[in-house]
């Protein structure tokens, strides 16, 4: 029996749930990244680094709330804070104390942030960042880097996936008149800024998809200089790297400070939420000023939702001293080394990379030569982002699940709840999976 058939046979309840969902949810999934063959797995419970699927299998989880759960599933401080907040009110419809407390913590932790506005998601945070940059500079054009992911609003969708110059279904192509998509290269960015009408350069400071296509700190510093010289704002999208790379995000590690920072995931403690932060002078365009002046509109029913604020405060308190990040980084480094060793032992071509508490596995592509920040030149941004060919990817995903490990589409996030036993289980699962895929002729 093929690995996909064996996994399907072992997961009848996930199949039943998927069939039910498909009747009312197109495709049966609620986030494109959850697409899986032969069908997606459903979850019924989770705790720490593990979760249980609908058919009762215990799994080591590397999805970790798409990167939101730096403390693992259901951490006590966050769950308790949620309980307390829910006893108060679900929606204030007014200002409330937790929003200021939440903003104060962000300002204290993130080096470039003096002031904050809250959103309901990372997508809204990057959308707001571009509106603030356009409002502040009075310019319309933005520059973004090919393959970098900033959510799914119109500007974010352009150039996020290869081919980067292709029309994106559902998004007006005319928008390209104000959106330049460039490779991660100082020369290309300088050329795009030369027109003198760019409001902002937005990028993932880790490189595309939290480091799939790494960026060097030298390039970040060069972009900082170029944007300052061009009078354009620099926006770091720290939706994933924020509070993970360090308590102050990647900007703290790199020592390069943007004008605006977008945050989500960890900042809201696993609840829906996001934030835009930046220099006071720039963020001031969000303030209502009865006396006049540029005002960028910012409504949003769930901005600074009390439950998200409560969870976010508890999370930020727990990660403020860096110990949680150190533990998760240590586990991730160990996991990356173990997975590399498996590739070497089995002789299956591939490579493992990633920084901080993340990892990604590319099976089928030999490790490229040279610096990771140059890999995009030889392998290409798209191949680096997706790592493994789809047929291998789906077989590997199913095999890892059969072995008790849920990879997040061939990559993953660690948390401070991951243990040595989880790493051992994952390395064993990977070795058994590669041997099986080879015996089935998949790799
Ligand atoms: N920016 C980055 C770097 C992300 O990784 C994501 C989501 O994964 C987003 C923006 C969009 O965030 P959300 O899914 O909360 O809209």
Walk me through what this model shows.
There is one protein chain. The protein is of the alpha/beta class. It is 42% helix and 15% strand. It contains 18 helices and 15 strands. The protein has a 7-stranded mixed beta sheet with strand order 4-11-10-9-7-5-6, sandwiched between helices. A 4-stranded mixed beta sheet has the order 1-2-3-14. Strand 9, helix 11 and strand 10 (260-264) form a beta-alpha-beta unit. The longest helix has 24 residues, at 323-346. The radius of gyration is 22 Å and the shape is globular. The structure holds pyridoxal-5'-phosphate.
Entry keywords:
binds pyridoxal-5'-phosphate; alpha/beta; seven-stranded mixed β-sheet; 443 residues
How would you state the average pLDDT, rounded? 97
- The global form is globular
Q: Would you report the number of β strands?
A: 15
Give me the number of helical elements: 18
**How far apart are the first and last residues' alpha carbons, in Å?**
17 Å
**How large a portion of the residues is in β-strands, by DSSP E?**
5-15%
**How helix-rich are the residues, as a percent range?**
40-55%
Largest sheet: 7 strands, mixed
Strand order of the largest sheet: 4-11-10-9-7-5-6
Q: Which structural class matches the secondary elements?
A: alpha/beta
Radius of gyration: 22 Å
Unreliable parts: none
**What small ligands are held by the chains?**
pyridoxal-5'-phosphate
